[in-house]
Write a structure and sequence with these properties.
- With about 300 residues, this protein is mainly alpha-helical.
- The chain contains nine helices and eight strands.
- The strands form four sheets. A two-stranded antiparallel sheet has the order 1-3. A two-stranded antiparallel sheet has the order 2-8. Strands 4-7 form a two-stranded antiparallel ribbon.
- Strand 5 and strand 6 form a beta hairpin.
- The longest helix is centred in the first third of the chain and has 27 residues.
- It starts with a strand and ends with a strand.
């Protein structure tokens, strides 16, 4: 989720298809020849759209946003993992992650956009809202922040509690074999589990929803709103509530990597990279080509009328 502002280096005036030419002396009207040209708009990307001279330096434009992504991701993931390892189950995890993101986005969104998630950064990059080098640095900071959060969780939780929640690792759900009585007869259900491809699709779908909401309410010219932190936080919470019982509800490689390292839980770990990244790529592409307002959409034919005398 980014508060990156797009500044148009030049805005072309809106011209009518015909113009009336008025001369000081009454003469025959001069014919107007019009031609249609396709114009390109130069777009400048800045972390903070309203740049003042005092803030136009490397610390403000590069280092400060990276620090927000590093420290913010660590806090966001740690709070969420505390909820996930509590006795509240999926509900506690969803509210912990969602409300933490809401508060942090409202506080620091103007600095870095508060992505805290490589999937969000990839989506924002594809949407054309940040530079590739900055996106790479964001992802590195997010992964380091997630690892730091998982290390703090291991340090701060009792061993029994930590082992019980497997360090907050995201895992596909397995179902033990069970006998059920249905219509006065016993039905035996064999052991089952969420398959890797089901996990990838589930994670991809909810990440697509999350990234699309972020792009629309935080970045798009037409639909962005001051309620973006609330909407984004609730979107994350709802998605985790919806899928937590099946994939643990990651939507975020940085949230999954740290716990996997410290708890040594790597089974189907690739699901939590492939799914969210695919969902984010699709969301960014659809935003850039379909959902975005015309000033940010690709393949838009912009025309101007040029008068020739």
């Amino acid at each position: 989720m980014s508060s990156t502002e797009v500044q148009l280096s030049e805005r072309l005036p809106m011209l009518n298809s015909t113009e009336e030419v008025i001369h000081s002396n009454p003469v025959a009207p001069t014919p107007i020849v019009t031609e249609t040209t396709i114009t390109t708009t130069t777009v400048k990307k800045n972390v903070d759209g309203n740049i003042i001279p005092e803030d136009n330096n490397k610390f403000i434009q590069v280092i400060r946003p990276l620090l927000v992504e590093l420290i913010g991701t660590a806090l966001f993931v740690l709070i969420g993992l505390w909820g996930a390892c509590s006795s509240g189950g999926v509900i506690a995890a969803a509210l912990s992650f969602g409300l933490a993101l809401m508060v942090l986005a409202a506080s620091f969104g103007h600095i870095s956009g508060v992505h805290f998630n490589p999937s969000v950064t990839i989506g924002v990059l594809i949407a054309g809202e940040m530079q590739p080098v900055m996106a790479i640095l964001y992802v590195v900071m997010q992964l380091l922040g997630g690892i730091a959060a998982a290390g703090l969780l291991r340090l701060l939780l009792a061993t029994y509690t930590y082992a019980g929640c497997k360090g907050g690792a995201t895992l596909l759900t397995t179902y033990a074999a069970v006998n059920r009585t249905v219509d006065n007869r016993v039905v035996y259900y064999t052991a089952d589990y969420v398959t890797f491809w089901q996990g990838i699709l589930i994670e991809a779908i909810v990440t697509f929803v999350l990234v699309t909401v972020i792009l629309m309410v935080a970045l798009d010219t037409k639909s962005k709103t001051g309620l973006a932190p609330v909407l984004i936080g609730f979107t994350l919470a709802v998605n985790i509530l919806a899928i937590g019982a099946y994939t643990s509800g990651s939507l975020n490689p940085a949230r999954s990597l740290g716990p996997a390292i410290f708890s040594n839980e790597w089974e189907y770990h690739y699901v939590y990279w492939i799914g969210p990244l695919v969902g984010a790529i699709v969301a960014g592409f659809l935003y850039r080509t379909v959902w975005a307002h015309h000033d940010r959409r690709m393949f838009v034919k912009r025309t101007t009328t040029v008068a020739k005398h």
